[in-house]
Amino acid sequence: MKQPLIIALDFSSINDVQQFLMPFQQESLFVKVGMELFYKEGLSIISALKEQNHQIFLDLKLHDIPNTVKQGMKSLASLEVDLVNVHAAGGMNMMQAAVEGLDLGTAAGKKRPDCIAVTQLTSTSDEMLKEQQLITHSMQEVVTHYAALAKKSGLDGVVCSTHEVPSIRKAAGEDFLTVTPGIRMGTDSVDDQVRVATPQLAREYGSSAIVVGRSITKAKDPLKAYYEMLQQWKGERITR
Ligand code: C5P
């Protein structure tokens, strides 16, 4: 993965996706397929996106007992997507089982999908952590601890907010992936996200990849919004 901007395809049908992707025909994108789209369209959306040469983050956030996650990941590996994820709250045995499942399901000669762990959702606030999860440590401590567990379990990185990237980098090293959603341009609506940041801050803090949904998918001109985001993210002028 080389500093990608991952577009979250949070649509409910393959038709909506194809319509959205129409202006991007010249682009080879890194896209994220989440629950809404995958539960509706299943394997057909994965093959359609692969045919268009897009890289795929299949964001299903597995969180179950280790054996179930292992078998689930074995099945997902056979889809030959690039990136998958689990919830770190499932524990180290579960995370190790996820990697084992991916290894088992990856065909000989193919690259196993990278696997990252969701630390705390970017829609979770400090108050929610304390009042709803009864966690008294700070968000930073919790997320950094989860990142260390994910690394020990053999995962390739974590999903976290931009604000936690520097301490995760310190704890887990430069090669450990930090994939950051909750990305907004200064003027965009925050929606249901809480721990948000601009693409520029994500670059300055050293995120490995940013995930952008509504700021692009709901923009009047999605291609223009994509290029504006990309430019801020890469910190260089990008000509179309
Ligand atoms: O529209 P928006 O840019 O907020 O979309 C962010 C995307 O990233 C959504 O698809 C959401 O499911 C996903 N995500 C997130 N926070 C996480 C993990 C995934 O927002 N911790």
Automatic annotation (TrEMBL):
<feature type="binding site">
    <location>
        <begin position="59"/>
        <end position="68"/>
    </location>
    <ligand>
        <name>substrate</name>
    </ligand>
</feature>
<keyword id="KW-0210">Decarboxylase</keyword>
<feature type="active site" description="For OMPdecase activity">
    <location>
        <position position="59"/>
    </location>
</feature>
<dbReference type="InterPro" id="IPR014732">
    <property type="entry name" value="OMPdecase"/>
</dbReference>
<feature type="active site" description="For OMPdecase activity">
    <location>
        <position position="61"/>
    </location>
</feature>
<dbReference type="InterPro" id="IPR013785">
    <property type="entry name" value="Aldolase_TIM"/>
</dbReference>
<dbReference type="GO" id="GO:0044205">
    <property type="term" value="P:'de novo' UMP biosynthetic process"/>
</dbReference>
<dbReference type="InterPro" id="IPR018089">
    <property type="entry name" value="OMPdecase_AS"/>
</dbReference>
<comment type="function">
    <text>Catalyzes the decarboxylation of orotidine 5'-monophosphate (OMP) to uridine 5'-monophosphate (UMP).</text>
</comment>
<dbReference type="InterPro" id="IPR011060">
    <property type="entry name" value="RibuloseP-bd_barrel"/>
</dbReference>
<comment type="similarity">
    <text>Belongs to the OMP decarboxylase family. Type 1 subfamily.</text>
</comment>
<keyword id="KW-0665">Pyrimidine biosynthesis</keyword>
<feature type="binding site">
    <location>
        <position position="122"/>
    </location>
    <ligand>
        <name>substrate</name>
    </ligand>
</feature>
<comment type="pathway">
    <text>Pyrimidine metabolism; UMP biosynthesis via de novo pathway; UMP from orotate: step 2/2.</text>
</comment>
<feature type="binding site">
    <location>
        <position position="214"/>
    </location>
    <ligand>
        <name>substrate</name>
    </ligand>
</feature>
<feature type="binding site">
    <location>
        <position position="184"/>
    </location>
    <ligand>
        <name>substrate</name>
    </ligand>
</feature>
<feature type="domain" description="Orotidine 5'-phosphate decarboxylase">
    <location>
        <begin position="4"/>
        <end position="229"/>
    </location>
</feature>
<comment type="subunit">
    <text>Homodimer.</text>
</comment>
<dbReference type="GO" id="GO:0004590">
    <property type="term" value="F:orotidine-5'-phosphate decarboxylase activity"/>
</dbReference>
<feature type="binding site">
    <location>
        <position position="213"/>
    </location>
    <ligand>
        <name>substrate</name>
    </ligand>
</feature>
<protein>
    <recommendedName>
        <fullName>Orotidine 5'-phosphate decarboxylase</fullName>
        <ecNumber>4.1.1.23</ecNumber>
    </recommendedName>
</protein>
<feature type="active site" description="For OMPdecase activity">
    <location>
        <position position="64"/>
    </location>
</feature>
<dbReference type="GO" id="GO:0006207">
    <property type="term" value="P:'de novo' pyrimidine nucleobase biosynthetic process"/>
</dbReference>
<keyword id="KW-0456">Lyase</keyword>
<dbReference type="Pfam" id="PF00215">
    <property type="entry name" value="OMPdecase"/>
</dbReference>
<dbReference type="InterPro" id="IPR047596">
    <property type="entry name" value="OMPdecase_bac"/>
</dbReference>
<feature type="binding site">
    <location>
        <position position="32"/>
    </location>
    <ligand>
        <name>substrate</name>
    </ligand>
</feature>
<dbReference type="InterPro" id="IPR001754">
    <property type="entry name" value="OMPdeCOase_dom"/>
</dbReference>
<dbReference type="GO" id="GO:0005829">
    <property type="term" value="C:cytosol"/>
</dbReference>
<feature type="active site" description="Proton donor">
    <location>
        <position position="61"/>
    </location>
</feature>
<feature type="binding site">
    <location>
        <position position="10"/>
    </location>
    <ligand>
        <name>substrate</name>
    </ligand>
</feature>
<feature type="binding site">
    <location>
        <position position="193"/>
    </location>
    <ligand>
        <name>substrate</name>
    </ligand>
</feature>
